[in-house]
Amino acid sequence: MRRALAAILVVLASTPAAPGMVGNAPPASAALARHVVLILGSRGTFCTGVAIARDLVLTAAHCALPGADYKLVEFDAAGRGTMRDVAGFARHPAFSLEIFLNHRATADVALVKLAQPLSSAYAPAPLTGPRKPVAVGERLVVAGHGVALRGDGKTGGTVRAATLAVTGQPGTLQIRLYDPATRNTRAGLGACTGDSGAPVFDTSAGAPAVIGVVSWSTGPGNSDGCGGLTGVTPLVRYKDWIVAQARRMGSVLP
Fold first, then answer.
1. Region 1-254: CATH code
2. How many helices (H) and strands (E) does the chain have?
């Protein structure tokens, strides 16, 4: 496990920062990047998560499946990575992998408990409080460690951010985002491999607050790939579970 993770980490940490996630989004600001973490799996997978307490990370449930081991990676100012042990997981009890693999909405949220608190370089992000339902056209910010070029893992491992617009019929089960400049008709900004579990921030009140996590992506025109739609699992249905489960796991939310 350690040897496999080390190999992945060397590739990610030694890769120069690419211009952005799919669609050439810029690197995230320090204010956003300090909330975002990288999760590596023993099966060669990687996902993104967001710190919501000093020792607790929120991510997608499909990023924390049974039968694999996981490590969290912290990066210092020079881009060097250090692996952190994971003490345990809690997936939402309503999550269904079968439903997820059939491209339908499910409770795709999970909590990752760390064996040791994050370093002072990271800061917990607050969850959004009560607010009006998300509206079509509203702008949300996605920040993740995913690849800048689909299929090229060497372009992952840098936190990049994109401001995307809400489209379709947003609800409490799913939100769809696209690049407002391309509107899913051609390749644009969007989440890609490694951005699963990435935080989606509501910045309307100034400071960023987590409103959801990334679950899936498509290519333009709903084709395979990235740069079309970014699918988000909103937290509105699951916030009570997150807060209660964090308490059970001994973590203090901001």
1. 2.40.10.120
2. 4, 12
